[in-house]
Fold each of these.
Amino acid sequence: MTEPTPDLAIEVSGLRMSYGARQVLRGVDFEVRVGEVFCLLGPNGAGKTTTVEILEGFRQRTGGSVRVLGMDPADQQASLRARIGIVLQECGFPRQARVGELVDIWRAYYPNPRPLDELLALVELTADKNSQVRRLSGGQRRRLDFALALAGDPDLVFLDEPTTGFDPESRRRCWAAIENLRVLGKTIVLTTHYLDEAERLADRVAILQDGRVQTAGSVRQVARQACVPTTISFTAPPALRHGDVAPPGCLDVEVSGELAVCKAANAAVALRELLAWAAQNELGDLDDLAVATPTLEDAYLRLVTGGTR
Amino acid sequence: MTANLRLAVRQALLEQRSFWRSAEYALFTFALPLTLLLIIGSTTAGGFLPGTHVKAQMIFVPSILAFGVIVAAYVNLGAKLATLRHDGVLKRIRTTPLPAGAYLSGVFGSTAATTLAITACTGVLGWLAFGAVPRVSGLAEIAGGLLLGVVCFGSLGLALSSLARSAESASPIANASYLPVAIMSGIFDPTFSVPRWLSAVVGLLPVRALAQILQQGYTPAAHAPLSDLVVLFCWAAAGSALAIWRFRWH
């Protein structure tokens, strides 16, 4: 085992997991740096939850090495649990407990808890301090999940699909809570189905597929690795629509109705060509010229399904 | 150690508050043994056990005390733990550094407090309605029996919650396992008779053992209570071992 690196919160290498004969993880490698929001993406059954549960100490791996805050989660050390906070996918509360007393007793479980009022304020539950848990809405319960996970002022927070099944307003509030954590300097490991969520929150993502990390890096890097072309669009000038002017030869321009769309690997080169072509043919300014860089969703779909949109 | 004890006490207090907050649950937990006491008492109180000079209430009141212990510590605790596990509350506890022992002691302590409250109510009602008062020299038997009974049936309840495959099945399994034994043990009718071989089997189970220890506290029995203590102690040890061995967080 190599010495743990201080600026890495999590080191995973060669992680394997089998349930009987079924191999779920076939050698997963990734690192999470201290202070970043790291997002694990992947289709259902790719092994996201299994990976996270191994990191959390809920499952014993079949092979490979795992270091979480310098410790092996398989050792089940209370000292590790004191430094991590976990928001599980679906997890109940003692139903008759009140919000305030539940958060307060959770604080007692940890050596260095955050102040109660601060926790409630962080997740916008101050007004619900005296409500019984069973009377909370789904969004409020999720935020209570956050408060309990943060009670011990953890260095590392795991969020397993934190906004699944939420309405847009609840999602926005949940995102705000995660942004708050980032401001506090916490390291966050997030799994999600929502690519807009990953794109908005994550510093780096890893795409898990068939039990391996297929791609990892910043959102931009992943998009580049997926080789998704940049899309340039503009309103097709009448001369182009009527076939009086041929589209630039070196570019792949498609005209459908009023819209002309050009997909290019290198946006800067394509734009230069396009503007030169427009000037040459006296087409004036290209109306509604827009450049859309590839989104994480484009990259994800291309990598995971091999398809294009 | 003292820190763990403090955590356990805090947990027990939270559990107690939660118990009393669900008024319906609390009410019917108390109502069951008290109602049975009144029904049985209304038909048999004042009479003597056949062929003896022992008043019926000196037997059925402590029998219902035992029944209260079984319902509160075995049935309710077993079902409660199964539900907590099913809902993921235990898994959530497992995410924290709280020692398992402190948490379970807290839950157990709250159950013990509820059980003692129920037996106290049963005892007072037995005295007020039927004049059944424990012997002064029998208080040690009652205290020891209640303590051992709570540990025994509570640990069996914990074990049951782990052995039941689903949260829904914990309650029916608990009822199906104790009620026939309670009837055969003469809890509701001390004259209830079963074949000799079955009686021997029932004598090895903890229900009759607990009832007889508590009866000893009300009226001196012909036989020595030592064998009952041994039976109850063995079941407490077996129940605790099984509960610890099979305990699951999720």
Note: The longest helix of chain B spans residues 57-87.
Amino acid sequence: MDLTWSDEEQDFRAEARAWLGANLADWRARHDDRILSGDTEAGFAQHLDWERTLFRDRWAVVSWPAEHGGRDASRWEWLIFEEEYYRAGGPQRVTQNGIFLLAPTVFEFGTPEQQAHILPRMAAAEDLWCQGWSEPNAGSDLASLTCRATRDDERGGWVLDGQKTWTTRGAFCTHLFGLFRTEPGSERHRGLSYLLVPLDLDGVTVRGFGRLDGDEGFAEVFFDGAFLPDDAIPGGVVLGEVGRGWSVAMATTSSERGLTLRSPGRFTATADRLVDLYRSRAARPGGVDPALRDRVARGWIEAEAYRLQTLQTVTDDAEGRPAGAASSFVKLWWSELDVDLHETALDLLGPDAELDSPWSKGWQFALSGPIYAGTNEIQRNIAAERVLGLPRT
Amino acid sequence: MRFAFTDDQLAFRDAVRDLLARGCPPEVVRAAWPEGADDHGARKGEGARAEAGRVTKVWDDLAEMGVLGIATSEAVGGLGLGELDWVLLAEETGYAALPHPFVDTALVAAPLAEAAGDPHGVLAELVAGTRTAAVLPLGSTLVPHGDAVTYLLTLDTRPTSDGAWVARRVQAGLAVGDDEHHRRHLADVLDGGRHVTQLGAWQSDAGFAEGPVVERAFDRGALAVAAQLVGLGRRMLDLTVAYVAERRQFGRPIGSQQAVKHHLADAAKGLRFAAPLVYGAAWSLATDDPDASRAVSAAKSLASDAARATARAALQCHGAIGYTVEYDLHLYLKRAEALARAWGDAAWHRGRVATALGI
């Protein structure tokens, strides 16, 4: 066991810290120090400016190969970058659903031509990808989805019909990756394909709508006989084989549940801010309820547990002991931790918690954690069946 | 960066695991419990009991393997190993609910005595397992294995402005319930396998060691007990997973019901995140990390909570059968509850973390 960072890793951290400090300040100044939520139209544009700044200096996708805009950073360096990013107060990554959910699947299943086209444009925030999985009647039971893609050999493409929903930032994105039923009459996990769809096709309608916090973070996407030509994406619009969409899609679910989407750095930074908040509230006349000190410590400890568990997981993965279904435990942990940290912060703020603030905003966002990326009830089923070995329901 | 144990550390863990699987099954743990009725008429030790000789044999076997000298130097007959080498062994002694003072004797008293220059001349016997020790941290008066130990220490912070840690040796102690004919009267307690006596009156020296070396001894004890709690949690989880896969109601295994799955998934989650804190704290102690005490307290608090939550889930998923003394679950459940509060409970350790964080 060696929990120290090498000289190279410490240099990488110092470089990331210096760059983030300087460039975050510049970015905020460019927008008059008035940064809006990335889930609003105006705020999304501000955040795209930030994403392009990251890309310019090769910080957008540090773990990717240099040829696609990355730095070939190791898993360890990626964790370090995430720690520094959230410690510096870096904003939400509005490109994350492409970078963290689609890209791993493109690396695994994409043809060289697809990779060469999709990845650099994604890293540069030129093409903006949203996820098209859930439907009005297919949420936790994703395999019941009914969106169709009907083959049209004459025109050379697919005809899309149906509706996707809960599509994060769909109203601001240019492309959608999603699951469609390509085998007529197929059921459940069979007969699905993983399609890559530009959202500017005729017959595609995107309607944004408000999340819990009022931001237009959600969209529903309607397909009314939209024609998707095979060459809409160089290398083709099907990722992996036709009819194998379910297993292709599962590659991204473990990324989403595991640490890629929600690295420990996010939560250790929030926990550190919570400690600071306690200190400032305790210093005011009247102080705070001493019971809150216990909850602050608990939150800090649980964030630290996530950090160390991740060091263990990354080591195990590197040495050929992959986590597999145990990523479901990770999703349970960070999603519940995020709610707890923010609830504690609101309790520290007392009546002022009602006012809009980063803590209130963060709390509202944290409430979605136990729901998205597979509800926590589904995660508990997966963990119980595939890790503990309990009988299937 | 590498968060994993060495092959040697895992091999030693496996050897101890095998020894305890053979030498310390539930009937041996129960055989350590007092037979018959206690002072209040409860018959806590009923159920399948191994012959009494097997209880002492498992201690002798650990001594023979060298485990009791793991934290003392080769110069005094030990193995000269560190926290990363013994943390997994402590976890295994938790998994087995070992009814012996392994942590107090081998991981706290022996290395502390060695660091202090063996002022009482007990080190060789501690390492050989022929003398056992109990350590009372933080003002506790409950002496585990108080009917047998012959080396009794207290670890406290001095209630003066310097707040320094100090280790004292207790002598001439009397247990609550002792009279002129009977000494070392066992207290009626939750976990009979710990043979707890309650100190009523005692004398101690002015302190034979103080400062960081004593705080380090306390941290070793808290870390080792945290590891035992993770092991106990795993044992309860294993027992319960096996039970709910077998037990049928409504025509199918109860483990196929989501309500049961969710209890056990939550229990497993808590243990999976407590364990890395325990291992990380072992690294911190082994490397003299300046934040080592904070790391130990983080580990002890989360391990205490995780073990207690697992005990609740395990009992609930067993239903009534788990709520009997003849079934094995209570042996582990009660040990977990006792250890969750020993060496500082979860709230005490969170307070120590908060102080270390400057709040």
Note: The first strand of chain B starts at residue 133 and ends at 137.
